[in-house]
Write a structure and sequence with these properties.
Blueprint (H helix, E strand, L loop, with lengths): L2 H9 L2 H28 L5 H21 L11 H6 L2 H18 L2 H7 L2 H13 L11 H8 L7 H24 L6 H23 L2 H6 L7 H27 L2 H18 L11 H37 L3 E3 L5 E3 L1
Antiparallel strand pairs: 1-2
Length: 332
Amino acid sequence: MSAQARQETAEHSGLLKLLSAVFYAGSSFLITVVNKTVLTSFRFPSYMCLGIGQMITTLVVLYAAKRSKTVQFQDFDRSILLKIFPLPLLYVGNHITGLASTKKLSLPMFTVLRKFTILMTMILEVYILSAASKPATAFSLHLFLSCSSDLAFDVEGYTFILLNDAFTAASSVYTKKKLGTEGLGKYGVLFYNALIIVIPTLVASALTGDLHEAVTFEDWVKATFIICFLMSCFMGFVLMYSIVLCSYYNSALTTTVVGAIKNVAVAYIGIFVGGDYLFSWTNFLGLGICMSGGLVYSYHTFNNKSSGNSTEGAQELKIHITEDSTGRYSTS
């Protein structure tokens, strides 16, 4: 990350950083539960079409806001593709693998495996943003304890969630990087991400038969399903906005850590929501250990950041007082 970018991040008030983090945590929590309801409780067959619905909602909301001059971002031209690459690819990868893993895994196991994102984000921050390296936390054993006793082990689901971890980490880091690109800004990043990728995703959905399954889904006549589907589409936009906002005011790693803290609530609610969690004491206790590890990691991350800032500030304010040969005092 450039010195200017670090300085801008440091200048944001603590209240804005906290509010953006809470907004992201709340949005992420709500969309996870809503998506799980649509894909598992109602058994909606197409996670890809649900993602398309979220992209279209993002485009409609931001286009309407731009037309009404509520928000401003650069008009489309050929330079946009170079400015925003590779975010659209990461965006669709994150969207599709996230929805697929939500469908395949119980919420508690989804939550536990999402913690790999923290390690991946730390690595990418070092290589892409040139951020200072942070000491890794030993949560791999906790992950293994919980995963190894998962009675509903699903190879496809585990593959999707690990790919989702990689896409999320890369997306967080590159979002932070692209927010400093002239002409894009928060809203431009959101809008052009969705615009560039929505048509290829729609074509892929039609070719694979995914779109046909979604259109012929029998629960379209149920008001409760329609409400949940529309909530998911709208929350997709809200989530993406909250991620960009949190990344703007905080670091990419902080955004990832906030997601890990949110997962504590999701994991335990997931035992009761979705109906696909197979209880065992070994898995339940492993889940608790893993969640505790996530909170401890999060505490040390924020605590070290605060300590670092305090030390930095103290060094900058340090005044050396010396006495010269005439008895007068001078500062340096």
